[in-house]
Write a structure and sequence with these properties.
Chain lengths: ~280, ~350
Amino acid sequence: MKKIGSKILTGPYIIWMIIFTVIPLGLIVYYAFTNSGGAFTLDNVVSIADTVNAKPLWLSFKMSFEITVICFLLSFPLAIILSKYSKNKNSIIVMAFILPMWMNFMLRTLAWRLILLNNGFLNRAFEIFGLNSVYLMNTKAAVILGTAYDYFPFMLLPIYNAVAKIDEDVISAARDLGASGVVVIRRIIFPLAMPGIISGITMVFVPSMSEFVIADMLGGGKVYMIGNAIEQAFNSGYADIHLGSGLSLSLMGLIVISMLIYKFFDKGEEGHGIW
Amino acid sequence: MNRGYRQIRVLAVICLSVFSLFLTSCSTRQEDLSNNIIVFNYGDYIDRELLGQFEKETGIHVIYEEFLTPEAMYTKYKNGSVKYDLICCSDYMLYKMIEEDEVVPIDYNAMEHIGNIGDIYWELSKNFDSQNKYTVPYFWGTVGILYNTEMIDYVPDSWTQLWNEEYKNNIIMQNSVRDSFVPALILNGASINTKDKGELRKALKDLQKQKSLVQSYLVDEVRDDMVNNQAVMAVIYSGEASLAREYNENLEYVVPKEGSNIWMDSWIIPKGGKNYDGAIKFLDFICRKDAAQANFDYVYYSTPNEAVLEDIDDEEKEEDNAIFPDEDILSRCEMFKYLGSDIEEFYNRLWKELKVY
């Protein structure tokens, strides 16, 4: 009886998966390997190697890497500090970091636009303090800043969860055995927080790889990432869904491969295969 | 085995029912079409009060739908699920639809107020409707430079100003393929409708050179950024320019002396429409002086309706050269033509090469 009950419960989920994951994915694969006449072709998938696509791909990779590093460098110390102050997940300090996520991310990105403009809030504040104005809007730096800001909570929360779960006694024991603060962080907290760090990195790196809206809003059309190339294939005057699907599929493939490599190295070290 | 089959069957039934739910909710719009017309237009491109007025006068109900880009319109029209009676779109897309034999000739004799449309606009329409058979002009305009008089003390009446090193990071370009190529093509002495790949490549080289001077490539935000004094000059459509000038009195608009692109949005009656007479009545209505006047006040783009133009005093015309351009501008400007899918694809390629440069 129980078995049938649980089967029925999975029903809606399976239907959801079929309609919104399996069928769309199947369509993308179908379009990727066909041309507009419906015949089989590899051109669309291979076109990722074409300079006009390879260049934005490399740019996306570099920028996602930088974004991930920035998010990690900010999150890791913060997670340790937060876990010290509040073991309680509902504390006000933790809330303060999650709160911005409750606002629509387009609005948050638009706000950055107003801050970074040539005569935006940032430069006006600089002016008051007699500093030179900075030209940030419509640069790569603005896109990196905006994306890092948007994805920061996705790095912070998993690391915080992992760090908060570490038993106080383990750290006390290390201290007792003469470990300095640096050694505790490096040899105790860091390895124990590894599952959180890995999921944090995955959750920041992968979506920033295919990001295009932030690049559009803060890059002023000058920062052209692989996401923009795919978007153009679907949306421009000369729309080519086959090319767009091919590029998406290649990008997906590359991300899966890099994740596999990552998992392989990670296993060799500590054995936390979590993604 | 048996149970497995049953599960699959149950699953299939559920899937199908969910799907059919989607489908039925999409196709419930089968209203009585005898006294309706379905109109398809750009977003926010008509005074909506006119639709009610039209219904009150004629008893014909207007089902009004909007689209964002000509390409989106074309995709939806081609899909065929809605039988549009009237579509308003831009020159090159209309040309494409006329070429593809998707339109029905318009019976101008049945229209009382068609005479309000000035002769030069019929002449202009010949660019995409060579026999003046299928279209009724709606609004038109130019592409030019919007500049901030606080930051530049002369009139940048030449496209060469877009390559002026002095305004590095202070130039905004249009983020669309063909518009962005206009300045470079014209400066090289080429037609903006050139199909010569060598000329297009040369224009690309110039645009790549220009890229380090460009602050941003934008579409809708061009107006906002110019209003907020973000840049010295921007390539912009005349209608947008006039709107920007309402918010910032330091902005001025100029069509460069080398010439530019001129565009026109017109109405067509597509094949497959159910209410031809209703469509004609609607077209006649929006050409009528009072309706055209109200519509012009709302949209505020250049109107081809001379009955409306007559009533506007010279002072207003002089003040807004974006909406009321000098006569000689027409002779300097060229209209976009549909270049065929081969050149379209080439443009798309060049655009990407500019973006990754």
